[in-house]
Design goal:
Elements (H helix, E strand, L loop, with lengths): L1 E4 L6 E4 L2 E4 L2 E4 L4 H8 L7 E8 L3 E7 L6 E7 L1 E8 L10 E7 L5 E4 L3 E7 L3 E8 L8 E3 L20 H4 L10
Antiparallel strand pairs: 1-2, 2-10, 3-4, 5-12, 6-11, 6-13, 7-10, 7-12, 8-9, 8-11
Length: about 180
């Protein structure tokens, strides 16, 4: 397993070992002991999620206000451009983001610690996106940041995106009250 630190505190790119041959491949997608020792992920996971989306769908940027979730995210089919954004005004990296392609081919994972906004856009025709969460999803606690917030200035690889109704109306960072 290879762990790559990013400019955002605690956000890590994880490259699991993949063992492949003519039959296919095997990889360990999570081990509490190994991920604690190598990536510093010590929070317990309480919920696993799986979403399927079509090309151009952009989900995010989401967070929970009072019960922040850490997320270990990956793709089992297809490809996404995945983003973690620092929305904490007291942080030295406030308004910065990390973007990384996650795909079935590169097997990468992204660890997004609690307190960051998270989102992704689908690059392939269809994607299966999976994530482990450190707290339960609570729709009454959900918040979001505009995907096209000029303060974040995210270099999304697609300009034509499909958004949910709620994602269309999230504020930019300057109007966000976390």
């Amino acid at each position: 397993m290879n762990v790559i630190d990013t400019p955002l505190h605690g956000v890590k790119i994880i490259e699991p070992k993949v063992f492949g041959d003519h039959r296919g491949f095997f990889k360990e997608t999570y081990s509490a002991e190994r991920y604690a020792a190598m990536a510093g992920i010590i929070q317990p996971f309480v919920q696993d999620n799986h979403s399927r989306s079509r090309k151009g769908v952009l989900r995010g940027l989401h967070f929970q206000k009072t019960k922040p979730q850490g997320k270990l995210v990956s793709v089992t089919r297809g490809a996404v451009y995945d983003v973690a954004a620092d929305i904490d005004p007291s942080s030295p990296t406030y308004g910065q983001y990390v973007g990384v392609e996650l795909s079935e081919d590169n097997h990468r994972q992204l660890w997004v610690p609690p307190g960051y906004a998270h989102g992704f856009v689908v690059l392939s025709d269809e994607v299966d996106f999976v994530y482990k969460c450190t707290d339960y999803y609570d729709p009454s606690d959900e918040g979001g940041v505009a995907w096209d917030c000029p303060m974040l200035n995210i270099a999304w690889p697609l300009t034509e995106v499909q958004l949910s109704e709620k994602d269309k109306h999230y504020p930019g960072l300057k109007d966000l009250h976390v």
